[in-house]
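User: Could you walk me through two proteins back to back? I'd like the raw sequence and the structure tokens for each, with a short line separating them so I can tell where one ends and the next begins.

Assistant: Of course. Protein one, sequence then structure:
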Amino acid sequence: MFRILLLLSLFLSTSHASDFCVADLKGVKSPAGYPCKSHVTVDDFVFSGFRAGNTSNVFKAALTPAFVDEFPGVNGLGFSAARLDLDIGGIIPMHSHPGGSELLIMVSGQITAGFVASDNSVFLKTLSKGDLMIFPQGLLHFQLNAGNTKATAIFAYSSTNPGAQLLDLALFGNNLDSTLVQKSTFLDAAQVKKLKGAFGGSY
């Protein structure tokens, strides 16, 4: 009887272990995520940072992520979120997420959004409050404010860390020889120099 009670107490004390794995951000991150935190509280499952971001930048846009590094509770659960704020004229340029698909949920304003499929077909739509749009994993996509007021949307991702590669930064925010950039983009030297200057690349 004692053995049964002992086994039962051990089971009850560890029964939550397979329910979740809150990230220990001090641990080593792997493709599977972070190791599990030993002491967990309710605050690990709450993210209070979804506030309007600062849109005073060249894109007139702000992305507030709730990925595993900001929200340890999503570790191992296969999803995460972000908030998008677009000022009038704001844009999130062409980019892709190698680690997950994206679901856009419109909150306010109007956003024209689209993606380019692998056969180069374009899927484009102007969205309003209550609309949702999917951007499949790895495909180039963008969002721009199509209205005359600020726009807000929430993103849900099929990964705790979807990653992102911005096309403009990939092309012009690096130290790739400008002659190679010219040849691969069909832009002239002056255009490449201007864009590298804008995105922090070396000419």
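----
Protein two, same layout:
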Amino acid sequence: MTTSAAILAALEPASLRGRLLPDYPLADLTWFRVGGPADVLFTPADEDDLAAALAVLPAEVPVTVIGLGSNLIVRDGGVPGLVIRLGGKAFGSIQIEGETIRAGTAVPDMKLARAAAEAGLDGLAFYRGIPGSVGGALRMNAGAHGGETTDVLVEARAIDRAGTLHVLSHAEMGFAYRHCSAPADLIFTQATYRGRPGDRVAI
């Protein structure tokens, strides 16, 4: 069985800049406020930090990624291995240039919808009623009110279990109803969307 101490020791050579918290109570990170601890909770400083951690983490250590915790119930026994939660400026920012919107995968869907509307870009308003984050929206092709992620996504950045960066085109995401066929070990870090000009008030 992998212990918190063993995981921390395995990650030490990577000289990580993010936070590593052993035996962290995951109930604090879910909307239902229930559940046991993570062996180790990791909040990477940025994409490079995440890649460095995954590159040295032994293959037998389970990896679990969590988002806002809005649709998550953690068992009382907790979650074994390394639990990763993206956040901060590196994963929580939005940049808009023309009709292109880039959002970190820790950005709440509602915040993304609001930013697009304020920039006069239509097409992402359906995110307004989804209580999750961009990362979850990519993984499940989230949608509502006649719109879904596949309608507006251009590409997504992700890190695999070995710490390698991938940039997936829309076609490579393999979207279907509430599903994408991208490899399960990919951890999405950023999404690029294309909106369409619209009226701020109408949006």
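Helices lie at 4-11, 47-56, 88-92, 109-118, 134-140, 170-173.

Let me know if you want the two compared in more detail.
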